[in-house]
Amino acid sequence: MKIQLLDWKIEHLNYDIITEEGRKDNVFDLSTWHSFPEESESIFLVGFKIKVNDLNFDLNVECTFRFEVDKKITDEFKLSHFPKVNAPAIAFPFLRAFISNFTLQAGVNPVILPSINFTEINNSANGE
Questions:
Q1: How many CA atoms lie within 13 Å of 8's alpha carbon, on the beta-carbon side?
Q2: pLDDT digits over 63-95, tens only?
Q3: Secretion signal: which residues (predicted)?
Q4: Do residues 15 and 41 make contact, with C-beta atoms less than 8 angstroms apart?
Q5: Phi and psi angles of residue 26, each rounded to the nearest 5 degrees, phi first
Q6: Is the pLDDT of residue 37 over 70?
Q7: What angle do CA 52, 56, 60 make, to 5 degrees?
Q8: In this structure, what DSSP letter does residue 7 have?
Q9: Which domains are assigned to the chain?
Q10: Within 13 A of 121's CA, how many CA atoms are on the CB side?
Q11: How is 31-58 classified by DSSP, letter by letter?
Q12: What contacts 29, CB < 8 A, 6 or more positions away?
């Protein structure tokens, strides 16, 4: 089965400079989701919520990536690695670059998010 990223968009972006002192640690939190719009038999969505609490700012980003496959989406596909592992692995580098560029252009130390092993995340979620 072939999978193609059609497009993506930032749904929500919140950026706040932190002026008080005392924050000692950076925080990075990532969550993902996927859905299958009823109006299409070959399109599915993958979303990310990312929270970055840097020493000098807070950044929250929510975005959605739209994918198309070359066959009808079945229940078997919905339970497969494609929407849980493959699609997030394809999409994440775009979001990672966006956050790095955004923070660079915002005039703060650019954030370079870590690489993510979506297979490991999926296995953890399934208790493997």
A1: 22
A2: 999 999 999 999 999 999 899 999 999 999 999
A3: none
A4: no
A5: -85, 150
A6: yes
A7: 25
A8: E
A9: 3-107 (3.10.420.10)
A10: 16
A11: EEEEE--TT-SSEEEEEEEEEEE-SSEE
A12: 49, 50, 51
Of the candidates 38, 40, 95, the one whose C-alpha atom is nearest the C-alpha of residue 65 is 95
- pLDDT band at 128; cut points 50, 70, 90: low
Q: What would the pLDDT profile of 48-70 be if each residue is shown by its tens digit?
A: 999 999 988 999 999 999 999 99
**Cα–Cα distance list, 66 to 72, 84, 119 (Å):** 15, 14, 20
Q: What are phi and psi of 45, to 5 degrees?
A: -115, 145
Q: Tell me which of 60 and 108 has the higher pLDDT.
A: 60
Strand duo 3-17 + 57-69: pairing: antiparallel
